Amino acid sequence: MYDILVVGSGPAGLSAAVNARRRNKQVLVVGKEMHSNKLRQAHRIDNYLGLPQSKGLDLAMQYREHALNEGVEIRMDEILNLWAEADGFQGMGKSELYQAKAVILAVGTPQKASIPGEEELVGKGVSYCATCDGMFYRGKRVLVYSEIVEGEKEANFLADLCAKVYYLPRYQGSYTELDPRVELLSGRLLRLHGTEELTGVTTSAGEYEVEGVFIERAGLPLDRLLPGLGMENGAIKVDRQMATNIPGVFAAGDCTGKPWQIAKAVGEGQVAALSAVDYLAGRR
User: Fold this and answer.
1) Can you give the pTM of this predicted structure?
2) For the chain, N or C: smaller number of CB within 10 Å?
3) Is the pLDDT of residue 15 over 90?
4) Composition of the chain by helix, strand, coil, percent to 5
5) Cα 225 to chain centroid, rounded
6) Rg (alpha carbons) of the chain, rounded to whole number
7) Is 225:214 a contact under the CB 8 Å cutoff?
């Protein structure tokens, strides 16, 4: 069991992890992305004190290297569910179960169902996890809609299972890692069709008959990640110590609300780490 599980590998999460390691805590960072997608796409950053004209990707790489050098353990996975137990918390990833005495949520901007028809068809053809649900679509036609580059791996995984895989990205990239069996689409996903089950999708480039849609975003809706988590104006509600309404759970970064800035994320990550360390000391 780890002392602290940090959910999210962006500036807030890695700041929290580094500061917790500096206080000799065993820290695991679980992140869906190798580097924060928002930071990676920042061509130039001029408002981060002392580091003007920085490139987002350069900063992201420095953050990760710093964390690894401090002894932080980082896993590429997605936490799908969190729950409290008598001795701490458990987090279910796509590939593994994680245990920790305290949790810091640094999951970025809270994600919500935003495509017409998405919320009504969850579990009826709409999925957020190809690894979990891909086998249900063996031999069928599916579309992967992704806001992050890691969606390419999900599309490639599905190419081994499905009769046809469409890939509709909402980020700029070369897409060179896509399996040649995956058909790359352009445009926007406008609507999902169906009542009892998904029957197709409408994009800005046309309509496609598919039986499954896999949606890849930076994070799951927070009310699905940790039931009972206090929210305010669409963000995680925290106090000055970055503590949530659930004892042992802290939050930092964009998920706690505006301003969505790197400096805020890094600072909140530090505060969350110090608060988590104090919480663990009080448990002894």
Assistant:
1) 0.76
2) C
3) yes
4) 25, 30, 45
5) 10
6) 19
7) no
